[in-house]
Write a structure and sequence with these properties.
homodimer, DNA-binding, alpha+beta, two-stranded antiparallel ribbon, 46% helix, 2 domains, 6 strands
DNA sequence: TTAGTCAATTCAAAAAGTGAAGTGACTTCT
DNA sequence: AGAAGTCACTTCACTTTTTGAATTGACTAA
């Protein structure tokens, strides 16, 4: 099975990976959250090739993660902006950032998060909505649904 | 600049992307969090090629995200397990899963999260550690550090 | 002995990514 | 008015990565 089959997986992590799980797409998402809107800026700030950038932007637009908005008629110009679907990836990018800050950096973080509501620079984290306690890998257990478990049993027994 | 230069970026999101930001690595991470430990199981459950799987496992081991643990001397066998660094990616995988559940799925989620502390199936979310309120893209603002801002200005003005 | 398991490696073909150059619709400078 | 510059791409030749099938090698179980 190839990368192009990922969107058809039952697992939503596989499906999400297929949409945004590659190096350059994640870098584009970073830029979008930092406020970058134009082709040339993405190009310089990510230092990716223009070929790849236009491919990825097209893909993200098709998926509804970003939208093109015209900001000038003559010459015809437009900018790229996050849709609600795209904005909702914030948690993923922040989680990745915190992990990178913690495990891959020696210096201070290059990007801080400010909470507009309270005005503080913060390091957001995940909590359990029921008991309100902080949550991590150690206190979570994955429960696989019946149909998905069956599907997995089948492939494990396969040739 | 190419993919291989990502680890040298100042930005920790770029660095994190370089380590775990690709489709197959994310799928391997999913499996690790679901409890998969052995080569053949990864192979069947992700349906990736064995060549790529062994490459990725080697890379993840080198990076310290997973470790190989022997579980049998004869025949020599070992399993792959998450290190602390790997376990700390939980938030990223969960964030990706929630996003996939919300935007890419029609049916019920194939994997639920149970909080061991309170015993409930939950959808964890991010909060501001200072004021305790739920946080998302709309109420966050990115603050770019002085040195990183300078670096970015430089590339924007570049040829 | 033969078949089977596990954890890979090898190899050729196909797909994806890279970097440089080019295009076209404009605007600004002189 | 002509030349140079900007922005948003596309094209193309080349390199790297991925794919999928086959093979290896160390063992075990029938």
């Amino acid at each position: 099975m190839s990368r192009s089959d990922l969107p058809s997986h039952t697992c939503t992590i596989a499906r999400a990976s297929a949409q945004v799980g590659d190096e350059w797409t994640l870098l584009i998402m970073r830029e979008l959250f930092l406020g970058t809107r134009r082709f040339d800026d993405f190009l310089r700030l990510t230092s990716m090739s223009s070929h790849l950038l236009s491919q990825r932007l097209r893909k993200l637009e098709t998926q509804g993660v970003i939208r093109r908005e015209p900001y000038s008629e003559r010459p015809p110009r437009h900018e790229y902006r996050l849709t609600e679907k795209g904005l909702d990836l914030w948690t993923v990018i922040i989680a990745l950032k915190q992990w990178g800050d913690r495990w891959l950096s020696t210096e201070d973080t290059p990007v801080q998060i400010m909470h507009k509501v309270c005005g503080n620079v913060v390091r957001p984290h995940m909590i359990c909505p029921d008991c309100g306690e902080r949550m991590g890998a150690h206190d979570a257990e994955a429960k696989i649904s019946e149909p998905f478990q069956m599907e997995r049993q089948a492939v494990r027994r396969a040739p």
